Amino acid sequence: MSDQTPGTAPFTEVWIVHPEGRLYSRVWTPAPTGRPLPDAPIIMLHDSLGSVELWRDFPAALSLATGRRVVAYDRLGFGLSSPRHGPLPLDFIAAEARHDFALVRQQLGIGPFIAFGHSVGGGMAVNCAAEFAADCEALITIAAQAFPEDRTLEGIRVAKEQFKDVRQVERLGKYHGDKARWVLDAWTETWLSPAFATWSLAPVLPRVSCPLLAIHGLHDEYGSTRHPELIGELSRSSRVQVEIMEDSRHMPHREQPEAVIGLVRGFLERG
Length: 271
Prior knowledge:
Layout (H helix, E strand, L loop, with lengths): L10 E8 L2 E8 L13 E4 L12 H9 L3 E4 L18 H17 L4 E6 L1 H12 L4 E7 L7 H13 L3 H11 L3 H12 L20 E6 L8 H9 L5 E6 L6 H4 L1 H13 L2
Parallel strand pairs: 3-4, 3-5, 5-6, 6-7, 7-8
Antiparallel strand pairs: 1-2, 2-4
């Protein structure tokens, strides 16, 4: 995109070469203001049914508000990225940090970064902050799960029942194409598997040392406030801020985008 007028954050599209195909990414950059951009861009990790497109206009607004580059990518099997075959491995949350997140950083030439994740992407962001602690300047989670809580699993069961309506899958196909069914099954069947019941962020959180902002909706249908509380309690972050948004459910950044952006901007400005 060529729009560089003040008050905008245009994006460029970049394809990441992957051993199983390629990953689609966008990089938003605020229009020049005469001041250098901060070194660390915000890298966004989407939720279980998410994609770059499903972030909508939030990344552009976040880039403009923080004055930083913002990077989002479709994980393998999602959005415009190449298909993924077979079920997700049980360690897929940690594996994303070790492998594909590292690949994105390498090919985009990113050193220092800020990890930002929503829902399962929040768990991935935690792993990114732990795996690359020397380069992670801050960690921001929104509606992240720290373990498979009963409320989490019940919410997934309800959603799985709703997706029996073929029209719901067709809506998902708008963002994932013919990968929509795989995306849905990767979410529901992985989280509802008895083998996944012991998954937890507890072992990895003590390796997180950067400043941490955990945002959670009070009425989140996929997890109680115990999740952000645990994320704050178990990390060894130099500064922890847990924000419970009283009028939000599982999508605070969509339900109250200005409030979320204000929290993020204030958090990052405090250093």
